[in-house]
Amino acid sequence: MSTVINCIAIIGKQNNPLFIKNFSNTHPDLKYHYIAHTSIDVIEERGNGVRSLDQYLGLLYAMEDLAVYGYQSNTKVKFVVIVSVTDGVIRDADMKSIFQQIHQAYASHVCNPFFNQDSPSMTLSSPSFLKSIEAIGTTIPISN
Amino acid sequence: MDLALNLTSSCRVRVLLVPVTPIKKSTFLRHVELVKQFSVVRLGDVTPDLQKGANAKFSSQVFQEGQMHFQFLTSYRRDHAHLEDFQPHRRIFGVIGIMDCQEWKDKNLSEGYHHFVNTLSNYPTAVATRCFAFDPTENQPDDTKGLIMIPNVGNLSFYMSTMICDFASEILSQFDNIASRIENLPMLESPLPRAHANAGYFDQAHTAPNPMLSPQPSASTPTGFKRQAPAPSPSSIKSPLQSPMAQQQPPSRMSQPPTPMPTQSTSSFLRRASTMTANSLSTSPPPMSKNGPLPPIPTPSLSRTNSMPLDTSKTKRRTPGRIKKLFADFYLLAGRLPDAVSYYQMAIEMTKSTSDFLWLASAMEGLACANLLLEYLQGDVGHIVSRKMEANANSADVPLSPTQSMEDISLKPAPSTFTDLLDQYTALIQYYGKVHTSATVPIPSLVYAEACIKVARLLLATWIHGGWTDQVLNLVVQGKLKNEKAPPPKPVNYPMPRFEIAEWVMRVWSVSLDPLPLLDQINVMTQMSTVLSTIGYQRKAAWCMHESIHSILPLLIQSRANVSNAKDLAAGLDQNGHGILQVLKHICDAYGIGEQHVQDGGALDAIDTPARDRDSSPNQTQTHHQATEQRRMGWALLQIDVLRQCIAISEALPDYGSMLYYTTVLLKNLYEYIPKDEQIRLASSIQRIVAMGKRSGRVESNVNYWGVNIVSHIEASQAIPRKAVYELPMLDPASVSARANGDPFIYNPFAQKKNDKDRVLLVKSELCDFKVTLTNPFGFDLELQHVILSTTGVSFTPVATSATIPAHGTVSLRLTGTPQESGQLTVRGCIIRIVGFAEQEFLYDEGQKKQQDQPSISSRHRDVVKYKYSGLQAIEHASKKQVSDDAQTDPVAFYNVQVIDDQPLLKMTTTSLLHGAVMLYEGEMTQIKMVVENIGHILVDFVTLSFTDSTCNEPINPELPMEQQYEMELFRQGMPVFSWEGTDQVGTASVGKKVQLAPGAKMDIIVKVYGKRGCSGGTIQIDYGYLDRQSTAQSLYTRQLYLPVLVSVYQNLEPLNWDVLYLRPHCQSSTAAVEERTNNDATLMASTEPQEDKDLVQLTQSLLDLGVDKQDYCLVTMDIRNTWTLPFDVTFKVNDQDSDDHLSLSIQPGWTKRVVLPVKRMFLSEQECQEPIPSLQPNKQYVVSQSLGHPEQERSRLQMFWYREKILEKLQAHWSCPSTKRHGLLHLRPSLRLSSSQLSILKKQDIAIIVNLQGPSVKSLTHRHFQCPSETFVSMQVTIHNRQPRPVKLILRVQPVQSYNNGAKEYDLSSKLLMQGLHQITMPEATADGKVTHVLPLCFLSRGRYEFLYHVEDVHTRLICYDHDWAIVDCQ
């Protein structure tokens, strides 16, 4: 069994949206924008807590048929993955590896010396980055 | 409809308070507050049921410590009717009418009572009714049956509590009836969620089971009514959800006759429908109306046919457990907690065994509530030991803490209760989640959502108070989150993380909220946002608010449509809308578009103070300006969506002020993200809103809507050169001396430079230009109706223009105006009126731009300690910072321009030039005449001219020898191309001239032009001004006129081959010698010979005639070539002291002529020769020569230089052209170079030897040529003339030689010449400029020609001086 990633969102350290990619066609983009925005609340609490050694934050919350997973890099860049809820359980290891792939893609994009990380209106739109996000694949295996 | 949001909701008996009209709203609310004080009734106080006594099922006397909780409502909707049978606490058990006797003074009270009774039909579930009449007057008889008069005298609260207890007793006895009816039910169905009822595709079979329960409430109702009111028709009091399928069950009603099903169902539906419309807030039509006309027993779909019998049997199996659960619910309502607990235990067991999860979970909820209440009672009452034991005996399998807490009643409630509660709820939520696995009917999402919110609120209350305490328990029972009176202690270090609370809230979302009625959705959302915002999850709270607003919107629109006909629409909506607008504000804050973070261009002020005086606009613009400095923050896409929603809401209200505000905020702050067409739409909607707002009188007309500063740059443009004004420092003695002392350097790189280049001076009452750059950041064209400059300072008359700025474009405008006085003019910005909008001033801050250029480091280091805030905290701190910074920020630096007094204006009317060009021969001097006219309106009293020409610009290489540098300087400056009234003298500075040129008068200016080689053009600059002002200004101002002149200089005559020759006395032979020398020059032409010969003869003759010592002269020769096409006459002039010779010759085109000039040899004293080479540049950089030559070489160089200067001074040549009458100087300098051999000719010897032969028959033929007879004694006198400035001691050597005609020379003269003394004699010392003479007696023995050679040698320096002429003696 497997489920699909509906959306991948990257939020900057100033809580500015860097990138939102909607893989599904069931919801409008705006909905994912809202979900990503509200997930900052949870990320901020969990990420700033004691157990911040782990960058993976696990399931942030579930909403209707969507489950929101979070991950925060050491530089407070937040990664949010939204999947559709199914009966099965998504293993943390699978989720972690997806986050690590996103993080990797982001890190290699940030390595670009011409990339201004602190500009507030900055968004991730380089083709190579988009390609690497596409390459992650949207299916996650789940176990019952 | 209120939701059951608290843990203890399920123990509350709902009682509706209805006003009996007529009654004032305030009076009604006052009485409601009064009644609400009696919401808790101790069972011991309840009037015992007299009929049954303690045997009654819900007797209040069995558990006297228990409490009944009433929930008094003032509004009621039947949205949750389908759940009433599942959760009895949702029902309205009682209705209390409230009458105000004051309103019934003249009427019969019973009339009102009847009115009340009639309305009761709206509340079919009410089992007990009362009608309280407050504030009766003396004369109102208390005779109406059923009406209870509450006197306002005496112990009101005691009276009221008695009444309420009586009321409670009645409800309890009615519970009895209901319970007995429930007991008899053969089958009890789960509630059918509205989603199923609403969904059209669900077939009858599925909807059918739901109303099976309805007999119970509807059955109980009639009894209530029968007792107190005229019973309504049975069909009308039936539960509206009753469907035809219900009739399949044996009717359990006692009093209801079986009626034909179709009619019954229809009527009940109609009833239901009418209730709905009466409430008028419902959005969805009655769910069953579609099903209504269907046949009573429909054909079920195939899938359902199979499952239905199964379903029915299952339901039958489960029914006993469900009945137990309902009993427990009623016990809970009745306050008999021990019974409730035991029944719940049973229900839990039974439903568990039949895996009836919905009822199981609900029973667990009830149990949790009962346990909580028990614990509360223990803490509160503390003496219920006996009953407790009994109650807990039944609940052995449930972990229940109160059993242990009997001994330590006074202690705090054990925290385990709290964890137990959580555990129970966690479990029951899971059961709720499993409902769909065991039942065909899904769980009602409302129930689920409520359960989640209940836990969330419990956790929140605990969190707020920092732990599970008595106080919290108290509050939970009361259903409050916190005590309003005593602020709770700050939750410090409480281990419960906030996300656990949030997690419970989030669980609400795990069911879909969409099927819920709109109002419930809104309620749930509001509750969620309350909890979330309390724990600081601002974003989530905002999202919930956003969603709930989203749900409210259709209601608003609908209500607006409903009341649009009403006249007093505005007044009513003002109040309602205010709350929503507040919510919108909160949402905006959370999304980073709160009021302090956006620029609204003053729209907000317009809302708040519509009638405000606009005088304070500078202040306002100031703040607005600072707002733009702030960086925009937030999530643009979301902000746009939120703002759109805000606009929609305020449009629905309608509130024009906030509509305007949100529209402007959206357009101004987020225009970058909005597509073009929407920008246009927004812009036009602003106009529309203003128009509408004006009509309704709520928006002031002159509001600025354009907060985006479209003025990006303002600069005064320099006037055209003819009109530009130049500032010159006024020369006063103090400043001159200061400058002299100040700086010793020609160029000081460290000196502060005045940046005068950009400075623009405006002239009073003259039109001036400003260059204004306007930027349009929007996606549509901005049409500017008129644009003028906004200025302060001196008065200024601007000229308006209009323009259109294209979308995303920039436009440069030239704005003009006339300053009316002199002084400082401050340009604030532009006042722009955009078509369709109010006029607005856009400021231009020059200081801001400068700051951008150089980031101010000082301000960065000003704050020593800096904190970094993340998320929404940053917003709060940013706003604080802004406040603190306000005091320090510099005021807006406006652009300042100096306006000076009137200046005169001159115009050059005519010049003597043709095409602005002049042609000259080299060395020629002509004149240019210019006529200037004063076209200004004041006097010109000062004129000065300055010139530049094309030859002035070449730099001089300082590495060159000094002589060459002097040459070049002389070329550049020695002879200026242009000169005016004496400026042609070298070294004269240009000086001004005082004139009096009245307005309109004309003046001639004559400029001389000199034909200088290599000059191609130049400029004549006339500076003029009016200086004779009374003011003590530091500087004076001039204007300038320019006349560019093209100059062509042609070389007409070319001097060549200059040379200096000895002038020899031996006529024939010396001429030949001269020719011999000059023939060496290749350029010499044969054709020139005759004239030269003639000249030479003439010259020699003239010299001989003069009889002067020919040794004093030398010959200067020079070729002059005519390179032009016209003949020229050349006149040479030699400025010797005594003679004034001049020589004229005419040269034909293409010819070369030789000029021979006798020039006196000259001698310059040592001092003159050692003068350093002068320089024409006073501020010349002095470079020490790299290679310092030998002093002797240096001396000779200087000597060479000074002799050349001397000869150039002596020789002057002019040319004239007879045919064109032109004349000019012939410039000899470039062609005249002096070689050392030429110098030796030109220069007189330092030590001269003068030889003379004396004797009786000696004849002097020519210079040093003597004739004497042989064998006679003659004496040769040799005189040494020392021209040196020092005395010299010399050795004279004389050597006679006999010369034969063939050129052979005979040196041995012992037999031919007798000579006394030695050939070599030491002379006595010759003083400076003194002479010594040596006499040498001679006797020639043979005839012939003898030549005497001689030289002198300095004794000290060994320097030998020769004489180029030797003495010749012809002996006969």
What's the SSE blueprint?
The complex is a heterodimer of chains A (144) and B (1372).
Chain A: E1 2-11, E2 17-22, H1 29-47, E3 56-63, E4 66-72, E5 78-84, E6 89-90, H2 92-110, H3 127-134, E7 139-143
Chain B: E1 12-19, H1 25-36, E2 40-42, E3 67-73, H2 81-84, E4 92-100, H3 109-119, E5 128-134, E6 147-150, H4 156-184, H5 194-198, H6 204-207, H7 215-228, H8 234-237, H9 261-279, H10 302-334, H11 337-353, H12 357-380, H13 385-394, H14 415-438, H15 445-465, H16 470-478, H17 498-507, H18 518-534, H19 538-563, H20 569-590, H21 603-608, H22 617-629, H23 636-652, H24 656-670, H25 676-696, E7 711-716, E8 725-729, H26 733-742, E9 761-763, E10 768-775, E11 782-793, E12 796-799, E13 801-805, E14 810-819, E15 823-834, E16 839-843, H27 846-853, H28 857-862, H29 872-888, E17 895-900, E18 906-911, E19 917-921, E20 925-934, E21 940-949, H30 962-974, E22 978-979, E23 993-997, E24 1002-1010, E25 1017-1025, E26 1035-1050, E27 1053-1062, H31 1067-1078, H32 1089-1106, E28 1113-1122, E29 1128-1134, E30 1142-1147, E31 1152-1160, H33 1166-1169, H34 1191-1210, E32 1211-1217, E33 1222-1225, H35 1236-1242, E34 1247-1254, E35 1259-1262, E36 1265-1268, E37 1273-1282, E38 1290-1299, E39 1305-1306, E40 1313-1315, E41 1320-1322, E42 1331-1340, E43 1344-1354, E44 1360-1362, E45 1367-1371
Parallel strand pairs in B: 1-3, 1-4, 4-5, 5-6, 9-17, 19-26, 36-45
Antiparallel strand pairs in B: 2-3, 7-10, 8-26, 10-14, 11-13, 11-15, 12-14, 15-16, 15-17, 18-20, 20-24, 21-23, 21-25, 22-24, 25-26, 27-28, 28-31, 29-30, 29-32, 32-33, 34-37, 35-36, 37-42, 38-39, 38-41, 38-43, 40-42, 43-44, 43-45
Helix pairs in contact in B: 4-7, 4-10, 10-11, 10-12, 11-12, 11-13, 12-14, 12-16, 14-15, 15-16, 15-17, 15-18, 18-19, 19-20, 19-23, 20-23, 23-24, 24-25
